[in-house]
Amino acid sequence: MYPLQNVFRLRYAPLLVSLLLLPLSAVAQETVNHQVMKTDVLVVTAHPDDESMMAATMARYADQGKVVSLVTCTRGEGVGNGTGKELGASLGIVREGELRRCLSLLGTRYLYFLNQPDWAYTESVQATLARWGKEESLRRLVRLVRILRPEVICTMDPAPVGGQHGHHQAAGRLATEAF
User: Fold this and answer.
1) Helix locations, the chain, DSSP H
2) Do residues 123 and 163 touch, judged by C-beta distance below 8 A?
3) Contacts 24+ apart (CB under 8 A), 27-35
4) How far apart are CA 18 and CA 15, in angstroms?
5) What DSSP state is assigned to residue 41?
């Protein structure tokens, strides 16, 4: 055997083997990622703190080994702050941190935001969906539902009831339509 052939084997053989195995590893990686995102229970709410309405249910499913995920439409930046001086975007950061701590106690694995604005209290679902851009909000949520493939979706009451926040109704409607 010529010395040049030995150099080729030593230098390029691992590259050749890795190129041949690349399609197999890509398929394996895709399968792994597909399973990593799988969610058993998806909860859809309007704001950080709305999960408190379903906290016991979320914790129970997580205790049973189920994967629980939360989608919240806003970051909660549009409300008053009774515990600090943060307002607007900085308040949204504080509320997100509080939510993440809460979800870790509940055993919730994933948290997603639709990044819609939290603005003034309204009982109008139409005003909320107009401000959020209903089609874009629905598109984002449908994408998450398709990626997560939940067995169960829990959400807020989509029916307009006196005294019910329009953001809550909108979250319920979006979740129902995404389903």
Assistant:
1) 3-36, 55-63, 88-106, 125-132, 134-148, 166-178
2) yes
3) none
4) 5
5) E
Identify whether the C-beta of residue 125 lies closer than 8 Å to the C-beta of residue 160: yes
Say how far apart CA 103 and CA 109 lie, in whole Å: 8
Q: Which residues pair with 42 in a beta bridge?
A: 69, 153
Give pLDDT tens digits for 41-83. 999 999 999 999 999 999 999 999 999 999 999 998 887 767 7
d(CA 51, CA 60): 14
Helices 125-132 & 166-178 angle (0-180, nearest 10): 70
What six digits make up the tokens of 94?
Answer: 């504080």
Euclidean distance between CA atoms 63 and 130, whole angstroms: 38
Q: Which amino acid is at 130?
A: A
- Does residue 23 carry a pLDDT above 60? no
- Class of residue 80 by CB neighbours under 10 A (exposed 0-12, middle 13-18, buried 19+): exposed
Q: What is the structure's pLDDT at 92?
A: 86
| pTM, full prediction | 0.77
Confidence of residue 176 (pLDDT cuts 50, 70, 90): very high
